Amino acid sequence: MTGRADELLFTGSGWDFDMIRRVYDAVEEVAIGEMKLDIYPNRIEVITAEQMLDAYSSTGMPLFYKHWSFGKQVLANEMLYRKGMRALAYELVINSDPCISYIMEENSATMQTLVIAHAAFGHNHFFKNNYVFKQWTDAEGILDYLNFAKRYIMECEERHGQAAVERLIDAAHALMHQGIHRSPRARPRDLKAEAAREAERQAYQERVYNDLWRTLPRGAKQASARAEKRREALNLPQENILYFLEKTGPKLAPWQREILRIIRLIAQYFYPQRQTKMMNEGAATWCHYRIMTTLHERGRLTDGAFMEFLQSHTNAIHQPAFDSGHFSGLNPYALGFGIMQDIARICTAPTEEDRVWFPEIAGTGDPDGVLKHIWANYRDESFVAQYLSPHLIRRWRLFKLDDKEATPELRVDAIHNERGYREIRHALARHYDIGWEEPDIQVVDVDLAGDRKLILEHRVNNGVLLAESDADKVLQHMADLWGYDVCLNEIDPESGKTLKQHRAQPHSPSPG
Amino acid sequence: MYIIDRRLNPGGKSLVNRQRFLRRAKASVQRAVRDSLKDRSIRELDRDGEITIVRDGVHEPTFHRTAQGGNRDYVLPGNKEYLEGDTIPRPGGGTGGPFAGTGDGADEFRFILTREEFLDLFLDDLELPDLAKRRLAGAVVEGVRRAGYSTTGSPSSLSIPRTMRHALSRRLALRRPSNADMNRLDEEIERLERQAPLGADDASRLEHLHQERARLERRRQLIAYIDPIDLRYRRYETTPKPVAQAVMFCLMDVSGSMTEHMKDLAKRFFALLYLFLTRCYRHVEVVFIRHTDRADEVDENTFFYSKETGGTLVSSALDKMLAVVADRYRPEDWNIYVAQASDGDNLAHDNPQAVSLMQNSIVPIAQYVAYLEVGREEDPMPAGTFPKASDLWQGYEKVIAPKGRFVMRKVHHRREIYPVFRELFQRRTGRAEAQ
Lengths: 512, 435
Description:
The structure holds two protein chains of two kinds. Among the domains of chain A are: about 15-130 and about 275-310, no CATH class; about 325-435, no CATH class; about 440-505, no CATH class. Chain A is built from 21 helices and nine strands. Chain A has helices at about 15-35, 50-55, 70-80, 110-130, 130-135, 140-160, 160-175, 190-205, 220-235, 240-250, 255-275, 275-295, 305-315, 330-350, 350-355, 365-375, 380-385, 390-395, 420-430, 435, 470-480; strands spanning about 40-45, 90-95, 100-105, 400-405, 410-415, 440-445, 455-460, 485-490, 500-505. In chain A, α17 packs antiparallel against α19. Chain A starts with 16 loop residues before the first helix and ends in an 8-residue tail after the last strand. The model of chain A has no long low-confidence stretch (mean pLDDT about 85). Chain B is an alpha/beta fold. Chain B folds into three domains: about 20-60 and about 105-125, no CATH class; about 155-235, no CATH class; about 245-435, Rossmann fold (3-Layer(aba) Sandwich), CATH 3.40.50. Helix content of chain B is about 40%, strand content about 20%. Chain B has a six-stranded mixed sheet with strand order 10-9-8-11-12-13, sandwiched between helices. Chain B has a two-stranded antiparallel sheet with strand order 2-5. In chain B, α5 runs antiparallel to α6, α9 runs parallel beside α10 and α10 packs across α11. The interface between A and B is large, with 98 and 63 residues. Chain A: Pfam families: SpoVR, SpoVR_C. Chain A: This is SpoVR family protein. Chain A: InterPro entries: Spore_V_R, SpoVR-like_C, SpoVR_N, Ycgb-like. Chain B: It comes from Sphingomonas oleivorans.
């Protein structure tokens, strides 16, 4: 029952369920009718502050397995909340089909409108359309899978004891960020194709056979070839350490493999969110700004409500300067929204500079269409690399600071001028590239027929080593999972020299 | 679009995780809880409160790069004066930029414990000696328990399995035609009706079948599927539950010789004992008796915070206590706990009187008597030398009581209170073996 299109949606700050429905319809009219967003069906759930705290602690999911680390998060969040150091988020949204948005009962009517526009339409559209999410997550299946995971882990606790399961999950959590396939894998060939290939090879060998080859001296090459073969059989090098342990760990029981798999798949589910955090927030912020402004222009929000919205909106997109004391990195909401607003400006009112830098979108006059295309086809890193404009660099007065180990001082490498734009854009894009920001650690070798020592390699980037005490602890976890010695070499990729070596032996002779 | 109101869903979803965390960090949390005793005043002792533990045991390690060394770059907003090529002194003694974020994280983890959690950890593995005198007493709680089924009750206590079972047996007994019977008839009728030209036999059979069907239908209507007489409700009965109850007597010397420091020590001991008793008994009453050369029963505030001067007559307090017992707390019904605090000074002629009261009247009726002798903070108690014991102490040493019923301890410093308390109430595993 939508009210007339020019009626106020609400007055005052109280809300009720009829009002939420009215607001939802009005927001939908703008979001679907004008912006033509493409969303999963929505489910909006009203919860209390306490429930929001609970939801926080299990990474926002409505159901999750039990582990002490989530309890630790509850305690930490509760402390911050009760001391007033941090307000709770107004909303929480889950990438599932239907898309679930939690809204808090404490929110005022304006905030509920904002939250519906932000989460139920902005994030929802992004989840459904962005290619990273499409590629990696199954929005339909996630809740069922979590339900399965929770039950399975509970059964394991009953059967094998809580302590054993807890130890395993501790170890798996430590390796969670190393439990991700970063690119889609090639499908393994089936047996038939494999046999055909083998026959083809054999035929070739026979055709080119020459007894002379036998007389050539054989040396170290042979051994290295065998190692090569061994590595190939195990699909090494392998950057997905959890996957490797799950498939290859010689001492793991089947239930332990299944739990490793569960944690690995959950890590994989969250991988797109980490790759697109800034864009995702930017998109949702842009949507709510666009929708709220439209509603206000049509006279459906009071001026007071609109002021309240602006207040909270400007708080969310506030970016303190680096020397202000409040600075703690770039605010993803601010940067995402800033770039998107800039894109909208380029589409509608481009300058000469914009026409040179962004010929394909300058002056198209269709910001909604251009942004939807961008939301679908970019992630944080490529988004910055493509669309951080000189105009925005000037407005934010971005500069790049170099910190070289060899020099005693920091050096300002680029500022907002002609020479600096590309440099700054390139450097910032790098910071949003998870593959670059996270240490590159791979399993490189293991001799399953020999001493079974697992060898890993960290290819050191820019001379920054791993944090030692943490690395040793994670390695210990890994040794306990693997069941034999584990060794991690930190290697300088240019010279090939080993900069540092970590070793660990399993605590217990058998993890099972 | 659906809107779902989840506010009434049961809360405490993360309770399990919270408990698991506390169990994992138990050792360090317990240490922190006990340390916090030093900084808390008595009134706050059983409030919920903030706890700080070292992160070590509950740290979750990951592979990540250090905040130090190597070559890095930062992109920062808000440039005001820098030009390309400017240099800035490295802040913070060369350990990464100021902009590097939080680095390796803080070493401490702070959180808030609820009152229950706090007390549980605080009083963990302590037990009250001798809880023998559990009696049914005046204060009885009505407990509710299941007691079979009844034919009346509220809809919420309807027992569906029971009801359905009764309905089924009634239907069987009264031969209510089942769906299968009806279906068979219907099929038969349909088959006959489909044969277009009906023989006389078939026609009469069809007629018969129709009549039969009507009869069964009537019967089905008469015999209901579920009848009100089938309904069964779960029945609950209230039962009286015995409540162990205790009374705790706090006796304290408030004469001139007791300094503020000594009173503070005594207060702390009483507070601990009170906390502990409230954990063990549903009903704990506390009687405060202060004495100089005469004794009064007072309320808590007066007991702890008002000033009084005069001589010292310990037996007056014991007399007063016995009077209160006779008046209000029959020893058969009440677990009686006595905690006496004093600096040990007493008028010489009163000692035999006090000792005999203790020996003959109090120890026999009490569950537990603790005598706490508080000393000056600066009393050094040098090793190897035995300071002269006070008169009262010497007298009380002669009191003969069953083991563990009557105990005496000396305390000089605030930090000794808790260890002494623990020592007194430690769970005695040895005794369990002996039994």
